[in-house]
Automatic annotation (TrEMBL):
Coiled-coil region list: none
Name of the protein in question: RNase H type-1 domain-containing protein
PROSITE patterns: RNASE_H_1 (PS50879)
GO molecular function, one term: nucleic acid binding
């Protein structure tokens, strides 16, 4: 997967639940080609992590024709989300179940793209984390 597109996602809440934001960063050929963030209102940290993945998948769905590579590596610093999506953990939380379903529905529309979900340390996800905090700062003034 050396030639894969990498999409870093992150979500965070100040308080749990509390004001939350989600962000993602798309990297191709070692360069950031797109980034976005969104204020979510009041949410839990885990909900924000899933919402970050959802907005990234929606972007991918709308932009997949522009990408040269058909391998997309999603890099999340949420081990919980990765382990739930790869079926290592069951989704027990009722508030996460609709978000998981949305991820599954979006994934099904991307059948021509190989998606891989990996957990990375927070230091590897620095830019997405920074975007989350900037969006929170903008909306909590």
């Amino acid at each position: 997967m050396n030639n894969s597109v990498k999409i870093y996602t992150d979500g965070g809440a100040r308080g749990n639940p509390g004001p939350a934001a989600a962000a993602f960063v798309v990297v191709a050929d070692g360069k950031v080609i797109y980034k976005d963030s969104k204020f979510l209102g009041i949410s839990t940290n885990n909900e924000a992590e899933y919402r970050a993945l959802i907005i990234a998948l929606e972007w991918l769905k709308n932009n997949k024709e522009k990408l040269k590579e058909k391998n997309v590596l999603f890099l999340l610093d949420s081990q919980l989300v990765v382990r739930q999506l790869t079926k290592l953990y069951k989704v027990k939380s009722e508030n996460l179940k609709p978000l998981v379903k949305r991820v599954e529905n979006l994934t099904s529309t991307l059948s021509e793209v190989e998606l891989v979900y990996l957990s990375v340390g927070r230091e590897e996800n620095r830019l997405a984390d920074k975007l989350v905090n900037l969006k929170l700062d903008e909306n909590l003034v």
